[in-house]
From TrEMBL:
Signal peptide: none annotated. Transmembrane segments: none annotated. The keyword Cell cycle does not apply. Residues 1-141 form the O-methyltransferase C-terminal domain. InterPro entries: COMT-like, COMT_C, SAM-dependent_MTases_sf. One of its GO terms (molecular function) is O-methyltransferase activity. It holds the Pfam family Methyltransf_2. Keywords: Methyltransferase, S-adenosyl-L-methionine, Transferase. This is O-methyltransferase C-terminal domain-containing protein. GO terms for biological process: methylation.
Length: 161
């Protein structure tokens, strides 16, 4: 969801040719793709409108979830939940802010990130506990978190509860 021109889905299919990838984005974005990847189905839709989201096993959002405050994030999760199979998963690729003792060590960086995100229209990076709170309200829980070497990309997997 919010996959733009489909580059990430194309890379996933190249490494996993047996899976079907669908790239869903707003109609204006999908119609602007001049050379869509042949291995990826490009679908116009809206993550806030469940009927536009095709049924799937996994939904990936990279640098999408952090663009929304908690209320909108809950709307997104409730909307995409309808498209997921019973064992479906949501993969969120965003920075996770630190919790607890880790947060104390990086307080200045966290304050800077939070302030920057809030100043640009209510966007927000979340800590693991904040993401878990939003997720649980919508019937999901965190299954795993994979820290990467990038400060802007942690990979969090949510499962239905």
């Amino acid at each position: 969801i919010g996959g733009g021109y489909g580059d990430m889905m194309s890379a996933i299919v190249q490494k996993n040719p047996d899976i079907k990838c669908i790239n869903l984005d707003l109609p204006d974005v999908i119609s602007s793709v001049s050379n869509p990847p042949s291995s990826v189905e490009m679908v116009s839709g809206d993550m806030f409108i469940p009927s536009t989201i095709p049924p799937c096993d996994v939904i990936i959002m990279k640098h999408v979830f952090c663009d929304w405050n908690d209320q909108k994030a809950e709307e997104i999760l409730n909307s995409i939940k309808c498209a997921l199979t019973s064992k479906g998963k949501v993969i969120i690729i965003d920075a996770l802010l630190l919790d607890g003792a880790e947060a104390t060590e990086n307080k200045q960086f966290m304050a800077f990130v939070d302030l920057q995100m809030m100043m640009v229209g209510g966007k927000m990076e979340r800590s693991k506990s904040q993401l878990n709170n939003v997720s649980k309200k919508c019937g999901f829980e965190i299954e795993s978190v994979l820290k990467t070497s990038s400060i802007s990309c942690d990979i969090t997997t949510l499962i239905k509860i």
